[in-house]
Every structure is written in structure tokens, then in C-alpha cells.
Amino acid sequence: MHLPDWLVRAAPRYARIALGASFLSGIASRFGLWGKDVGYGSFEAFERYTAEVNAFMPRATIPFLAWAATIAELGLGVALVLGLWPRAMSLASAALLAMFGLAMAVSLGIKSPLDYSVFSASAAALLLAVGHPGTEHP
């Protein structure tokens, strides 16, 4: 099946912006920007979730992990939305999401990362990073 050229060119941009916006939306949630009763609603709630997902980690590492994830997601989200270093940012996003999915699977069971499409997002980011023949790279 032959897809229209405009669609082939738009698909990587769509994936890049959607992935970046998802990272930024998660950050907005953990700082209560979507509302106190929406998503995490506060950074404290996000830290509690970080502890659940990383149940195998020492409790003392949780604040660092929560802030490290937040900083990584902020940088990746902004860079992806703006189209900066798309290959490197997509590859880093794929790795971050894969680590998150594995941590979820270990701590919460495999159903959790599957239900939240973490591995799907990681795979999409990896496809975005490697591109494919016949398309311009994002």
C-alpha cells in the first residue's frame, strides 16, 4: 500500500511531538498544573508513586529518582517538541521509557506497563530514533 507523501513526512513529526507532549503533561501533573485531583496533583504524590514503581530501591534513593526522572522528562519533552537533536532525544526517550517499564514490571507486575502503554511508547521512540528508508528523519 502506498501512503501519501505528506503522511509519510508528517508521521515522524507527529510521533515526536506526541511523545514530547506526553513527557511534559506528566510533569505538569506532578506539579499540580492540571489540578490537585488530576493525575499526581503534587510532587509528594509523585514521590509516593516513584517509591511504588521502584520498590526494589532503597527508600533514601526515592527523592533523587523522582527528581532525576522529572529533569530527564523535562529536557526530553522540550527537545522533542522543539525538534532539537531528534535522533538522540528519541533514543534517550526509548531508553528512559524502557527502564520505567521494566521497573513497573518488577514492582507492580507486567500488566501495569502494558496497560499504560509504556513499552509501546518506548518502541515508538525507538522507531523514531532509527527512522526508516524513504522518510526524512524527524
Characterise the protein shown here:
The radius of gyration is 16 Å and the shape is globular. The longest helix has 26 residues, at about 5-30. It has about 140 residues and is mainly α. It has six helices and no strands. It has helices at about 5-30, 45-55, 60-80, 85-110, 110-115, 120-130. The chain has one domain.
List keywords for this structure.
single chain, 138 residues, mainly alpha, 6 helices, globular, disordered C terminus
Number of spatially distinct domains = 1
C-alpha geometry: globular
What is the rounded distance between the termini?
22 Å
The helicity comes to over 70%
Radius of gyration: 16 Å
Largest sheet: none
Question: Could you give the order of the helices and strands?
Answer: HHHHHH
Strand content: under 5%
**Tally of strands:** 0
Number of helices: 6
Average of the residue pLDDT scores? 94
Q: Determine the structural class based on helices, strands and strand pairing.
A: mainly alpha
Sequence-ordered SSE layout with sheet pairings:
Blueprint (H helix, E strand, L loop, with lengths): L4 H26 L12 H11 L8 H21 L3 H23 L2 H5 L2 H13 L8
Helix pairs in contact: 1-3, 1-6, 2-3, 3-4, 4-6
Please outline what is shown here:
The protein is 72% helix and 0% strand. The protein is mainly alpha-helical. The longest helix is centred in the first third of the chain and has 26 residues, at 5-30.
